[in-house]
């Protein structure tokens, strides 16, 4: 690790003192400027290019509200995803919980991230890992309770961390009170009108209303038995049969979710990740779909899809934005929307809709310079057109761990969904690439996400015993796809001991032999570990001038990704087959692996440079 004076290494980006501003080497306030003005300029620096266009002049004039910086914290934030069931087990029942997370908050803070996003913790039968919610205003007892949740929020805030929750508006669990009432009330009732019930086709209604399929495999329709015991209507479920879809045409559903948002915002939650944000609005009169028999779980990519990315969904988000903006500071929304092309995604991020969205196009890019450059350019420019920052994602609880994904022959991973790819994996190669990918991601303008365990370099667990698989995809695909459990295996905290320090009562998914070698204890303090790379990268990232756009460095070879952020900082990644000469620089700040004897950048290696 080398210090780089120009970048002001060690200067906290959130530090608005005059000294800190000077070290960044840009936009140093003039001597006659007030402290307030300097603070305002700091705020402007933290916003993206688009925002700078709109607000810097105000800041210079000295009337930009000083709270603006804290309002825009998310524009270049790094958000750490906590899959709570697998993070840390505080009560020894084999499943992670709020108590475990509270104990480990200092670890998360010390990583150098800005916020947590916690996967669903609501009461749930966990048929789909908690994305089957039985009560949107409570916490499953296996994870804790509302009092503990409040303490967690307070403690995280005390450590300077924001907290986002996961909201699941497309569907509920079949254990939700509303769904039980719908089943009991029968056809035509207001209780059924909260979900999507239809009569079947054929003389006795025994055929499903149409051929639409569930994302998890099989039909997207399930027939119910009516209260009088006769075979009855069908209900629609994009996902598992235990996840009935709400009818968002129903004003009661809309009002209910506005109230749920307020419930959590009032408790102190800073925002929501919105599950299947491109679902909700449907055209139930749409035609049968042309499924490709070879790709059972792949949805047809057609224009005017009857249940994904329909224009009507934007009205919902305008209402949600009003709720978020009625709080001080305003609350944040992040969309999980598997929508392409980037122009369609940008529509979710218009001024009066959501703030940010996961960049799955980037996650799905092949590990080639051309693909990465194209994806970066597309993301930055398209999102800038609506004033939104780009985000960068390599992993989450649905996709194959990057160490494994990048260790495959073909790195263009299709949807990236865990449990789909087959064939050999070279974990050493994948790890080298994942290290380079981490530095690339953290150097890009905008926000970034880190999924728990990514910072340890955990691989996908590909050989979980079949009997332990819990993802509904395994059953619904007729045992042809193993699903996503392999990226959800409980974290190793210590080299040895019960469940490698996850908890005292074992782990709900079996951890593989050798898991302890990738534990926090094993990697802590080892300068060559993935954990050290992430900690260093996250710390040094704070001194990259966040307002500076990306400028490609053209002098490097085609299979090298190289760019500058402002005058002082450059990132170079070699994806070619031979070592590459570095562009002119003053110092190497951080490298994902050693340079060769001639100071050249080896294959699958990234560096940050002071230039
Ligand atoms: C999202 C979640 C995934 C879940 C699905 C259904 O894609 O990330 O885990 O299975 O929605 O809620």
TrEMBL record:
Q: Which GO terms describe its molecular function?
A: alpha-amylase activity
- Please give a single GO biological process term from the UniProt record: oligosaccharide catabolic process
Q: Where are the compositionally biased (Basic residues) regions?
A: 40-50
- Magnesium listed as a keyword: no
Give residue ranges for domain Glycosyl hydrolase family 13 catalytic: 81-488
Question: Keyword set for this entry?
Answer: Hydrolase
Q: Please list the residue ranges that the record marks as compositionally biased, kind Basic and acidic residues.
A: 24-39
Name-wise, this protein is: Glycoside hydrolase family 13 protein
The upper taxonomy is: Bacteria, Bacillati, Actinomycetota, Actinomycetes, Jiangellales
């Amino acid at each position: 690790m080398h210090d780089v004076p120009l970048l002001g290494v060690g200067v906290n980006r959130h530090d608005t003192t005059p000294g800190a501003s000077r070290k960044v080497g840009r936009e140093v306030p003039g001597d006659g400027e007030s402290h307030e003005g300097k603070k305002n300029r700091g705020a402007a620096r933290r916003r993206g290019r688009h925002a700078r266009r709109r607000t810097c002049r105000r800041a210079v004039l000295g009337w930009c509200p000083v709270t603006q910086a804290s309002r825009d914290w998310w524009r270049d934030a790094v958000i750490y995803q906590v899959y709570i069931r697998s993070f840390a087990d505080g009560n020894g029942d084999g499943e992670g919980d709020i108590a475990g997370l509270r104990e480990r908050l200092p670890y998360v803070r010390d990583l150098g991230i800005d916020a947590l996003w916690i996967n669903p913790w609501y009461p749930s039968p966990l048929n789909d890992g908690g994305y089957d919610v039985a009560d949107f205003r409570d916490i499953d007892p296996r994870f804790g309770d509302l009092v503990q949740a409040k303490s967690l929020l307070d403690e995280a805030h005390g450590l300077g961390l924001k907290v986002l929750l996961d909201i699941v508006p497309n569907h509920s669990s079949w254990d939700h009170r509303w769904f039980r009432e719908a089943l009991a009330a029968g056809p035509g009732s207001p209780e059924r009108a909260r979900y999507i019930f239809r009569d079947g086709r054929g003389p006795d209604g025994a055929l499903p209303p149409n051929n639409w399929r569930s994302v998890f495999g099989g039909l997207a329709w399930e027939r119910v038995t009516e209260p009088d015991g006769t075979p009855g209507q069908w209900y629609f479920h994009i996902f598992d049969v235990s996840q009935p879809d709400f009818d968002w045409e129903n004003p009661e559903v809309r009002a209910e979710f506005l109230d749920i948002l307020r419930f959590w915002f009032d408790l102190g939650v800073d925002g929501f990740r919105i599950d299947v944000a491109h679902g909700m609005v449907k055209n139930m009169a749409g035609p049968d779909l042309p499924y490709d028999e070879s790709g059972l779980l792949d949805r047809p990519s057609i224009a005017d899809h009857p249940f994904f990315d329909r224009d009507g969904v934007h009205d919902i988000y305008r209402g949600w934005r009003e709720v978020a903006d009625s709080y001080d500071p305003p609350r944040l929304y992040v969309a999980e929307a598997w929508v392409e092309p980037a122009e369609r995604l940008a529509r979710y991020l218009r001024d009066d809709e959501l703030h940010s969205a996961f960049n799955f196009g980037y996650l799905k890019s092949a590990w080639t310079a051309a693909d990465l450059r194209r994806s970066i350019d597309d993301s930055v420019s398209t999102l800038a057109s609506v004033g939104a920052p780009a985000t960068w994602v390599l992993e989450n609880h649905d996709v194959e761990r990057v160490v494994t994904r990048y260790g495959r022959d073909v790195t263009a991973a299709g949807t990236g969904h865990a449990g789909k790819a087959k064939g050999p994996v070279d974990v050493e190669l994948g790890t080298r690439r994942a290290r380079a990918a981490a530095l690339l991601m953290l150097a890009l303008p905008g926000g970034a996400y880190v999924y728990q365990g990514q910072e340890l370099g955990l691989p996908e667990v590909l050989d979980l015993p079949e009997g332990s698989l819990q993802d509904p995809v395994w059953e619904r695909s007729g045992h042809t796809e193993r699903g996503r459990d392999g990226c959800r295996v409980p974290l190793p905290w210590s080299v040895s001991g019960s469940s490698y320090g996850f908890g005292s009562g074992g782990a709900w998914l079996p951890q593989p032999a050798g898991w302890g070698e990738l534990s926090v204890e094993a990697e802590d303090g080892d300068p060559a570990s993935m954990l050290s790379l992430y900690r260093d990268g996250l710390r040094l990232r704070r001194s990259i001038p966040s307002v500076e756009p990306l400028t490609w460095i053209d002098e490097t070879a085609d299979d090298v990704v190289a760019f500058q952020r402002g005058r002082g900082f450059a990132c170079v990644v070699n994806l070619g087959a031979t070592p590459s000469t570095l562009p002119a620089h003053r110092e190497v700040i951080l490298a994902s692996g050693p340079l060769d004897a001639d100071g050249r950048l080896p294959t699958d290696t990234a560096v940050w440079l002071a230039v």
